[in-house]
Amino acid sequence: MSDVAATIRSILDAHGRLSTPSQRIKDSDDLFQRGLSSHASVNVMLAIEDAFDVEFPDELLTRATFQSVESIRIALESLGVASTNVESD
Amino acid sequence: MTPLTSPLVVEEPLWFPSNGQPLFGCLTRPKVPLARGGVIIAPPIGREVHASRFALRRLATALAEHGFVALRFDYYGTGDSVGDMNDMELDVTWQGNVLSAVELLRSLGLSDISAVGLRLGATVLGVTASGQSLGLSSLVLWDPCDSGRTYLREAKALGMLQRKRLSGRTDEALTIAEFVLTPTRSAELSRMNLTKSKGKIAERVLVVTRNDRNMLDGLRSRLDDENVEWRRTVEQRELLDVNPLFAEMPRLTIDQIVQWLSEPASLMAIYEPVDQTTSIEIPRGDGAFAVRERYLDVGPHPLFTILTEPVINPKGPLVILVNVSNEDHTGPMRLWVDLARRWANFGLRCVRFDPQGTGASPWSGEGRNMIFEPGWSSDAECIARTLSPDDPSNVVFVSLCSGVYVALEGALALGARGVCAINPPVGIDSLRLIVRLTSSRQRLVRSVGDGLKWVLLHQRWLMAASWHFLRVVVPKKYSINLLSEVARSGIELLVLASKEDLSPFPRVPLLRSIDRRRVATPMNYHVEFLPDLDHNLQVVTGRARAVERLDEYMMERFGGLTSTSERNDNLEAM
Questions:
Q1: Residues of B with CB below 8 A from A39's CB?
Q2: Is the pLDDT of residue B240 over 80?
Q3: Is A63 on the interface with B (CB under 8 A)?
Q4: Are B14 and B274 in contact (CB under 8 A)?
Q5: CA triplet B214, B236, B225: central angle to 5 degrees?
Q6: Per the count of CB atoms within 10 A, which of B222, B268, B479, B487 is most buried?
Q7: In A, residues 12-51, which contact B (CB 8 Å cutoff)?
């Protein structure tokens, strides 16, 4: 697992209030179906910004960005966060 | 004075000046004129103030029980204070408001002043305290935003992640649920930055942070120099991350704050009773009448009431603005305040109030899981009979969602002149059925009603499921009985509705056409569907359309102005 994905998962565990521990979630699984609420996704967003020292621009403040671990990772890549050793499903 | 649960405490609503503008506040104090100090309570804004108002009231009461004089207040342009958030330089004005609140407490002879700020309220307090010499003994930053910018980002992200179509303006104004800010005002709010503030903010500081959110490093290092204590709370989620109707009382957090503020031993001292200003003149708008606003206690409970009226020669019926469920009297997105002042400007008397158990009216001091209560319609009747004693039927109700039920029952009881019903809830007749069951003389029937009510209030999933079920299967979207009964009785009825309410599948053409047939079936009243109107009036364009239609309807049917041309001129000026 990449450092980025691992950090995303630890943030999801701490702030996402998911019904399942993040380690049992695939990269492509729908986080909203796993219990991620709008409020929790704001907490996740803030924690990710804090962890990676980035700021999501308005165009990325959509449900699609926070739909899955993969979509979050792709959004971070678009913000210049390097990703290595990406885990496949 | 409104008696609270505690016989040792009184609440005194009042207006007080800040830079020449009246702010609305409420002093909660020990009944005897002996206090250990004063505490100002700075609220959050937007949806967070709706969610937390009852908690801040509980905090004020607990502080008064421990010997403090607590002052809650609304910033300029919020709540019952005058103005609009876009009128003035926001950061400077709100910091001035904090200064005025401190001055008010000092004017009572209280020398030891502390403060509690929740969310953006903590930011405003901290920034003010660092820039001015407030001389605070103790300061509690309760789940603070490190800056106004952070708050706005969170609020905006939440709106976008909830897929709220809040925008619709072309001038790049920042639109979030509850308010619209011009770019200039957003920038002013953003520049309030607790992290970048300098100087000592209080003799001692307590920062209460969420257990599920990391405190930003910047704020932590900013407060390193202060005499700071850090604590975590697990209660913010159930207070702020839920529909404000279902917010839970953060009892442990309130107890901790009160205990922390009470820790330094201090002597009780005599303080002066406040010179309670309960009436103000609202700065004149574009209408024909100067407007006065008065705080009143109405009825035996008594009910917290604010009457907005022309200073001279009011005309037309009394307009009663009815709360949605357990929200307070300012209305959705402060709409009741805005409408009352606009319509009073055109000659109408308007009243907003908190039914028993809600807002600032007497309550148990505990949670507030109240969606409706049988007594609320009687409260509306009581308001009409008290404020329109010569002819209690000369009233018009304006209401949203579950408030429509209260309005309709009140209108039927009074034989009112009219009802403006915005987004009447699905299953309004079921609501009526439950109220009738709970009011039955037969114990068995009453217990069935109580059981149904308990399930609705305590099993939110069941309420949500029932709502969706009704949306899909009810043959007619809107009430078969209650609305029709009102229309049959000769009461003028304006029903404004959101297409969003019609179906959970608005994008499926077949289902949409079925929906249209549902509401097109013969009825004795007409439903007007407004584009962009959402159920909670959060979408700016839809809300503006609703307000425009309400303005037109009220002026046309009940307006105080005498000539059509005069009315049109004034509406254009608005």
A1: 158, 237, 240-242
A2: yes
A3: yes
A4: yes
A5: 45
A6: B479
A7: 14-15, 17, 37-43, 45-47, 50
